[in-house]
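Troubleshooting: if your tokenizer reports a length mismatch, compare your output against this known-good record of 89 residues.
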Amino acid sequence: MMIKPSIEQLTKGEINRYELVIATAKCARIVTDEYVEQREKADKLVANKMTDKPISSLIDNDLRNKKAVENAVQRIYSGEYKIILPKQE
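Known-good structure output:
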């Protein structure tokens, strides 16, 4: 399955594919950590009977229903995460 936007749209001629892959992997790790954090909070709420909602409804819809890489690509494309190269620091 192809994730949209395309590589050309993501790189915009500024970075190479390798840099894009590394940035996407790092962003996907952040997304996964967010999911784990939300899941732990939801588990605690349910275990302590502080809510009647199911665990799935307490977790962000995108984090729950999309793959981490797909979320990462969308966040990079939307500008929520910016790729900073070592030479730019």
